[in-house]
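Subject: sequence -> structure tokens, single chain

Hey, anyone have a minute? Need the predicted structure for the following. Not urgent.
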Amino acid sequence: MIATGTTLLERDAGLLWHPYASLDAGAHYAVREAHGAQLVLEDAAGTRREVIDGMSSWWSTVHGYRHPALDAAARGQLERFSHVMFGGLTHQPAIELAERLVALAPESLRHVFLADSGSISVEVALKLALQYQEAKGRTGRHRFAALRGGYHGDTFATMGICDPVDGMHAAFAPRSSGELFLPKPPAARRDAAGGWEYSAAELAQWEQETHELIAAHATTLAGIVFEPVLQGAGGMHIYPPAVLRTLRELADRHGLVLIADEIATGFGRTGLLFAVQHAGIEPDIMCVGKALTGGYLTLAAMLCSSRIASALSGSGDSEGAALLHGPTFMGNPLACAVACASLDLLAGEPGTSAERAPWRQQLATLESGLRTHLAPAADLASVQEVRVLGGVGAIALASPVKVAEVTEAAVQRGVWIRPFRNLVYVMPPYISTPEQLAVLGRGVVGAVEQVHG
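Reply:
Had a minute. Here:
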């Protein structure tokens, strides 16, 4: 039964589902304002509190809220047109966005498909890989290899390549089975100097098992899908860049399409513009989303190499040459215009070198601040490990996190977070100041200590 009331939380209750929650779970706070790295929350009693958004609205609002350049881009496009179909038509925002993406991406990625969301961009990547193999005359290649511990989206095809046991979609495993799952890569840490630490023996064991699995199933595989260096929603698992080089080698050896899911890691979050750059490899297909529009509108993109794209173009009949996907809001001009402005903020002024681009200094500030202010958590009895990579900080507990209690304790300390599993993690906006990072760290560590000890 739908609840009635006058406050936003009362009106929400029983009316709206929230992510990964029952209908009666409702929301705990209403957002009344947002600016910079701050949210203004209102609780059930009507009390308002300003907090630092430690989530970047699920890793997307990298430039913060109400950014003047993004607001201006949205207003400017609204004054022209907010949407037009992309079938048979094109427009400047889409073309400019594709040009910017190709200029930023690894050199071989030259062609762009604009999608509605991250999950859909991965769906399109899977379709493209299947059509590529068909165009090459490799019948029977209808499966994908994916890393255990991975997460790639909530739609059915993407659920099928998420971890089938330890992921969020175990309830749907019987309907999305059939893919090949490679061992979860060994854990790694990146030190403050940028070096990588991991067990060479564990990596060698992973490589041996992965080589054997791929070789045994290669004739049925279309491609390999992976989140580079950081498995996000699958558990904030950091692994060695050498894993990516092994996957590239195996894809080349067995004629597989290598698909990098950079939706969470792209645009600087791990300390490099794209996480594949930690290994110096180029994938055949790369998916980006989340931070693409700076968190303003839903938009994602799939980029691919000319080698992949040309196989379809040369397949003869028009249906075989077409990439068989076409969302109603594909290439939405409003989203594309804001995305262009967001990428401009990352790149800096025209002619700015990659080394001097603003996001590099922002990420250096984030990483340094997170290392400093999350470090005290390692001394808590409830904590197994503290992990930091670029603009990602995670506190791994020895037991499942008490989500509601830790969330409330953090809000009382001026911080908004959304823990899951045994993880209390943060991915703050790039614009967060050193002072805000200090508040964020103290708030998160204090909340863990208060609730878990």
